[in-house]
Amino acid sequence: MALTERIEIGRREVLTDGQIQVRTDTIIEKDGVEIRRAFHRHVLAPGQDLSKEHPCVVLLAKAEWTQEVVKAYRDKQASI
């Protein structure tokens, strides 16, 4: 009986204000058959540090977070 654990990015979603929601899936398998899956979500704000993020999330952020998007997000946050 071999138990293995792997982590994958299950979902990436860009919100209208530029934030990116990331769902990380932790998958437990027994002899190659999935027996459990757990989810963790976190949200990234435009312009946030991406140094600890998965490469696919970094690519998405680089495509979505234009200077205009980052400025609009920061201006909105400053007005709250």
Briefly summarize what is shown.
This protein has 80 residues and is an alpha+beta fold. The chain has one domain (3-78).
Strand content: 35-45%
- Mean pLDDT over all positions: 97
Number of strands: 3
What is the rounded Rg?
A: 16 Å
Overall 3D shape? elongated
Low-confidence stretches: none
Give the assembly state of these chains.
single chain
Walk me through this protein's architecture:
This protein is an alpha+beta fold and 80 residues long. The chain has one domain (3-78). Helix content is 28%, strand content 44%. It contains two helices and three strands, in the order βββαα. A three-stranded antiparallel beta sheet has the order 1-2-3. Strand 2 (20-30) and strand 3 (33-44) form a beta hairpin. The longest helix has 12 residues, at 67-78. The radius of gyration is 16 Å and the shape is elongated.
Write the SSE topology.
Blueprint: E1 3-14, E2 20-30, E3 33-44, H1 55-64, H2 67-78
Antiparallel strand pairs: 1-2, 2-3
Question: What characteristics describe this protein?
Answer:
3-stranded antiparallel β-sheet, 2 helices, elongated, 44% strand, single chain, 80 residues, alpha+beta
